[in-house]
Amino acid sequence: MAWRNVQEVILSDAIYLDQTSHRACSGQKQIGHSEGVAD
Q1: What pTM was estimated for this model as a whole?
Q2: What is the DSSP letter of 34?
Q3: What CA–CA distance (Å, rounded) separates 34 from 39?
Q4: Which has the higher per-residue pLDDT, 39 or 9?
Q5: Highest taxon of the source (predicted)?
Q6: 32 pLDDT tier (thresholds 50, 70, 90)
């Protein structure tokens, strides 16, 4: 039972990190796109 809870926590952390990195990547793409338009 305890091991299952640990796995769930690790999984939710991985999902959170994936979403965070995806947002950061999207933000970089938007910034790069804006710079491209400015040029």
Answers
A1: 0.40
A2: H
A3: 9
A4: 9
A5: Bacteria
A6: low
The count of residues in the chain is: 39
Is the four-CA dihedral 31, 36, 37, 39 of positive or negative sign? positive
Torsion of CA 39, 37, 35, 24, to 10 degrees: -160
Amino acid at 35: E
Q: To which H or E segment does residue 2 belong? A: helix 2-38
Sign, CA dihedral 10-11-14-15, equals negative
In the block, residue with structure tokens 């950061």: 24
Look up residue 2 and give its two tokens.
């305890």
